[in-house]
Specification:
With 495 residues, this protein is α+β, with helices and mostly antiparallel strands. 52% of the residues lie in helices and 15% in strands.
Amino acid sequence: MRVTNNMMRNNSMMNMQKNKVTYNKHLQEYNTQKKIQRPSDDPTIAVRALKYRTTLSEIDQYLSNIDDAISWMDATETVMKDVDGRLDEMITICTQAATGTVNAEDRENLVLQLRESAAYIFEQDANQDYAGRYLFTGYRTDVPLLFENTQTNVTYNITEEIDINHINKYEYVYGEPSFDDSKSAQDYASEASRFNTTHRALVSYDNCDDDQTMSVTYTDADGNEVTVEAITKKIEDDANLNEHLNPGDDEIFFVPETGEIVFGDGIYDSIRAGSGLSVNYQKTEFENGEIRPEHYFDCVAKDNTTGKEIKYSNADEQTIKYQINFGQTLTVNTQACNAFDTSIYRHVDEISNVCNDLNIMERNLEAVQKRISDCDQGDTETLANLKELEEQISTEIQLQNSVLQKSLSSAITTMQNQKNTLNVAMANHGSRYNRMLMTQSKLEEQRIDTDDAKSQNEDADLGEAYIGFTEANLLYQATLNATSKILGQSLLDFI
């Protein structure tokens, strides 16, 4: 085959171009430290690179979610530990009062300390927010746990579940002897105070609406649902005899001022034999710092101005979940209704009420003793009457002191139960927290492995890249040298 000069020049230029392409490829590989510069260079490497980058992006997002969740859960754990410490303090205060004799000043300090501790638990801890979101209010992270102002224009219709075991046998002082000029010593003796017992439970609020009909619903031993309308009994209607704590055999009394539900013996036996006790009642006036019902109970809030109603339900099922791994979510919040029992407030109120009654009895005793000291010693009949009244009031005070001791003991039991509830919530929180830390550790290892695989897939080996670049450079220089010799000669050089 005849080879012409043009053929040699064309072939030389083509080979030189190929060497330049190879030279440029190794040069780019060395400069960028990447195996390919565009997907078309090696589609397999390009597809793998996209997958690795997507995986790394997802891992980074999960790690970011975990960082946010850990911060939220750290704040939650701090609050629950603080509440646990406060409960220990309240138990200590009640124990000291229950094991000693307390005078009026001691009782005042006792109630003050308990109220401050309860307020701290709910106002400072349970109402805590984190980054503008309330920790313990479920989905409604923008709504505080407590009312921030006094509210009187919205009526809440509350349905509250009551553990049957929380219906306690309750002792109270029946009767209250009072001074009357027309009464004789025999009259005062007939008014002697005594212990009565009843079965009682407390709803979560006091000062409920007094113009309502509370309904009590339970399932009896035969599996039938029974609804009983409670009879509203106000304390002011029988301030002396405490008849509001003495229902008939098949009656239920509701005391709106104190939030007490008092069961007659017959209906109590029926409830105890059954299950599923719930009560429905209404409350309109809420003080600043009281718990918002929607965070604890199924309820309907009606605006008394506009008539608009809002229904709240599933208060204990509002779990906030974060996605922390591929196909894995984790609950990060703890709800107030699962960690902090409203009975803390209620038992403090009860102790306060018992102490207030005891203070009134002691003032009555002081007034009678003043009358005795001022009485004409020759007026033996009046003096005998007053001394009988003094004895009856002293007996009443002794009985009320016994009620106070039992109220303190009951409060200690309630706070111990609250600690148990809180410890269960803390254990649940801790198990989720540990799982999150393990997931975080796994993701960090997975990120390192994925990053290594990504590097192996697309990063160039600098040693090999430099050798390839050097070889391409030598070959290119040799090509230039050979081509210059070929192109520099023609047929005239040989004539």
